[in-house]
Amino acid sequence: MNNNPIGLFDSGMGGLSVWKEIRAALPSESLIFFGDGVRCPYGSRAESEVLQFTVEAVERLIAEGCKLIVIACNTATAVAIDYLREHYADIPFVGLEPAVKPAALTTKSGVVAVLATERSLSGRLFVQTSAKYADKVQIIKSVGHDFVEIVEQGEECSARAEAAVRAVIEPIIEAGADRIVLGCTHYPFLRTTIEGVIGDREVEIIDSGSAVSRRVAQLLDENNLRAAEDHTPDYRFITLGDENYLKQLQRRAYGCCSKEKA
Ligand code: DGL
To answer: Is residue 260 helix, strand or coil?
Structure first.
């Protein structure tokens, strides 16, 4: 069991940002990444659909023998994590949540921005977490319009990406935010473009990647599930998309994130 894989699930390629962190932090662990790829984006879909798609993916990852599952998608976590923990009590789950806490605790301006999908920002998890800090800091909620599509199409370095990022980031900075939380696993692929728009202004970008890999390690230890140190890991990718999508997933997991740099 211990050498069985860790499963990761996302609506598409975004969860690869989490896959990379886990692979780097836990080099003996085999990983299976399930990127839907056909029904992405999930962020503007009905809760019932996101729940159904997530349950289907989890069933598949369990059938593949996964010992722990990471819902590498903030949107699917917001909708489905309670259901999954209740209905698959034998499997440890790690979900993705916007890293509001480190942003709220370190902001100097008292204004933080959270970028995420509509579904994540309206979810109970986010509403509860942000309420904890609402009396201390101002939290600006912002949807990264077109961000997910840009990443799925490998256009992070395009003029389209720069315009989409500028349209979202400029108003946030003008409103005084000095911390920008990336609350969607697709958004770290746009980090360089976001940094370009920020320029030399004192604004820090925060994502959940390293916190998630630490949580995975902790849960493996708690459940005595760590792979043997000398285990040679195996990396597999599953998608509902076509052969070409599968190739994109593999290419982007190991390499760069854009068409231009391919
Ligand atoms: N990557 C996902 C997230 O973290 C979902 C993006 C989408 O499918 O809309 O929220």
So the answer is: coil
Q: Which 8-state DSSP code applies to residue 66? A: -
Instruction: Mark whether 184 is an active-site residue.
Output: yes
With H, G, I as helix, E, B as strand and everything else as coil, classify residue 35. strand
Strand partners, 34: 9, 238
CB proximity list for 100: less than 8 A, separation 6 or greater? 112, 114, 126, 129, 130, 133, 139, 181
Cα(243) to ligand 1 centroid in Å equals: 22
Residue 73 CA to ligand 1 center (angstroms) comes to 5
The full set of domains in the chain, from first to last, is 6-96+209-255 (3.40.50.1860), 100-206 (3.40.50.1860)
CA 211, 212, 217, 219 torsion-angle sign? positive
Helix, strand or coil for residue 116? strand
**73 noted as active-site residue:** yes
pLDDT digits 0-9 by tens, 15-66 = 999 999 999 999 999 999 999 999 999 998 999 999 999 999 999 999 999 9
pTM for the full predicted model: 0.94
The 10 Å Cβ neighbour count of residue 149 is 15
